[in-house]
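ping. complex inputs:
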Amino acid sequence: MYAPYPENMMESIKKVEATRAQRMATEPRRLRADEKDALLKKFHPDYNPDAFAEIKVGPNKGQKAPLELAEMLHSTSRLINEKIDLTKIDYDVDVLVIGGGGAGSSCAIEAHNAGANVMIVTKLRIGDANTMMAEGGIQAADKENDSPVQHYLDCFGGGHFAAKPELVKRLVMEAPDAIKWLNDLGVEFDKQADGTMVTTHGGGTSRKRMHAAKDYSGAEIMRTLRDEVINRAIPVVEFTSAVELIKDEKGQVAGAVLLNMETGDYSVARAKTVVIATGGAGRMHYQGFPTSNHYGATADGLVLGYRAGAALLYQDSIQYHPTGAIYPSQIIGALVTEKVRSVGAQLVNANGEAYIHPLETRDVNASGVIRECEEGRGVDVPGGLKGVWLDTPMIEILGGEGTIEKRIPAMFRMYMNYGIDMRKVPILIYPTLHYQNGGLEITGDGFTKEIPNLLVAGEAAGGIHGRNRLMGNSLLDVIVFGRNAGKKAAAKCKNVELGEMNLDHVKAYDEELKEAGVETNEVSPMLLPHYARHERKITGEVVSA
Amino acid sequence: MMDLYPEIYSCVGCNACTKACTQDLNVMQYIAYAQRGELEKCAEESFDCVSCGCCSVRCPAGISHPMVGLLARRLTGKYIAPEAKHLTKRVEEIHEGAYDDLIEQIMQKPITEMEELYNNRDIEK
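pong. complex structure:
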């Protein structure tokens, strides 16, 4: 018998197999609004009061943030005891894009189109980003039975009616154009023989509008954008972090201080407009969760922007993706794309029960998994962890033999590396820290309210998805708001007259921290996760991390 | 391909690229497709490439396999794959303003009405 799992897990699989035929005959019921609310309140990590702290300084003073983020906001700048010569300008550009992921790259391409002198800085390499790791797909209402208005309803309702209407409007109205733009750049979307896009459901969608490139959707988009940036010879300064924004006496942003990650040298970039496209925060490991995020996801942009005076929105709202791998241990936290459920797999507990509809929104499904595990219906994993099954053999029964290899080849490969053939046995999952729903608050045009020439795009921006993001709206958001930021920044830089550059806001923020009596002995932004093998300099003394 | 990556025709067939592939792709095969101008096949065979470059560092002919696959995919995606007519149509409709009024209306609705609409919306099977 084929047994890639330990004995107790194989015993549970027998129960999953025993109920499969009956489960496939009936679609699990969708929860009512009040049932969802109750489930979220009891089991969603955002409702854990011990995991949040009050922000003591800055525009969001008095609001709460995850402990780890609050610590970064309460830490001082690494420049506080450095002497940076702001008159020695190393890079002088129109548009400075901080971050080399999907949003940063789309932004740079559009700014370049508009004739601006644009430069990307990224602390890792271009494309080393969450966009590259996105799997399932990208939403756009382009089918006959669908409309941007229907997309608006799904997005707004799925985000608990908390999203900003003008941002949702831009997201859904520019979605078809974003897909067309990507298609024209050569992104190979899954299509039928006549050119019709192959589209599926995601959690919380009411129409099948998930476009995909197998389960490499983000990778296919990112490698195409990266190729385009390189082909256009847009300068990309890699392994270089922006560690602080620079402002001028008019309150505008005027560039950034950059840190070479290898040599530790600082340099100065002057820019007429700055776009923060630094992505997410998974590597902060809120509440000890594993993460699906790439190595650099440490909320740097939030700290930079906040210290310069830009407000955050929904910084206390975090997305846990319901299906992260929990076994084998080598891939704990790695994303198991929602597309696995889009193409037919159900969530099944240790007793073989399909306890929930597999395509509820992510916050609801994540809470459901946690409930099953806490109430004793989870499967024990060596090491004291628990998970529930994602019944993948259903996909082959529903779609025919070969469906898994054709539609979700990356998932198939990831598990086969550990001898687990998901065509034959289910896979075990548990929620993984996936996305920051909030971020720096932006206007409908992508600018921060406080600083007239500072823009934010991608995961670093807040308000687009309210308090829960739907699958496929993040790849869409990085393209729509990335492109928008590029166009707007290029137009804006024509009427920006920069004054004298200074770092006064960094000193002022430090004073505020002292007044508020918070001291963390850390510097921020974090730049690399704490488990990185490097030494951090903390106010003069070198401490080994 | 001939213009941009002429070195693909220097392949000696050693198959070191395929043996090195971290994604178990048939790398030499997709280079062969590229040599013959079969771009769609090259695109499909190379689709799972993550551009790690393990193939290229082993290649005695100095071929940049990931770049060849990327070019084939971008050409296929843009020129060879059939146009998605429903997409083109929807983009035109939006540009012509067909949804402007509807989207303004839904943006103005009070939350209670939005909750009602959301909780009772029909979901495509």
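The first helix of chain A runs from residue 7 to 25.
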